[in-house]
Amino acid sequence: EQAHQLARAQHRDPVQQHPGRWYFHRTGGTLRGGSFKGLDLAFGDAASFGGVLFRSLAKPDGSVIVGPSLLVDHLLKSTTHTRVADLEPGAMSAEVNNLTPFGCRLAFTLDQPATGQELWLSDGSAAGTGLVRDVNPGPADADIWHLAVLGGQLYFNADDGVDGSSIYLYGEGW
């Protein structure tokens, strides 16, 4: 009985087997709509499915968005999209990964044709979301991984295309 309840609580979608990926809730492979929308940060692996449900967001102005469906609505509004499918990895040739809370912001990598995979930050608004720096200039990927916040600082591993893979610290001068 416990295994049956656990299986019902999990979406068991293959996206949930890729750590750091966004997972928008689905039923039978179809994205959920209305008040059933939700967003997880996946943490599974080849043998397991896993995700942490985002339930609320504290914005820099002190307001709080509460509820998984309202968070997805906020993402749509902030990004000027009208469909959850537009937020999916691969939509519009962009892929979001490595979601990492960083103070009142969210650090993530975004893979786009013009810049490749690079570091981005968002405060939850369209105006407050943008590329931090094109570490490996042009369309080449910086292969950013292991985003970590330690002591209020954002560290990550990236390849600038010249010196190879190095540890970077986001901070002054970026």
Notes on the protein architecture:
11% of the residues lie in helices and 39% in strands. The chain is built from two helices and 14 strands. The protein has helices at residues 2-9, 68-79, and strands at 22-24, 26-27, 30-31, 39-42, 51-53, 56-58, 64-66, 95-102, 105-112, 116-122, 129-133, 145-150, 153-159, 165-170. The strands form five sheets. It has a four-stranded antiparallel β-sheet with strand order 8-9-10-11, with no helix packed on it. It has a three-stranded antiparallel β-sheet with strand order 1-4-5. The longest helix has 12 residues, at 68-79. It is globular, with a radius of gyration of 17 Å. The mean pLDDT is 80.
Helix and strand sequence:
HEEEEEEEHEEEEEEE
Number of helices: 2
Instruction: Say how many strands there are.
Output: 14
Indicate the structural class.
mainly beta
For the report, how would you describe the main beta sheet?
A: 4 strands, antiparallel
Q: N- to C-terminal separation? A: 53 Å
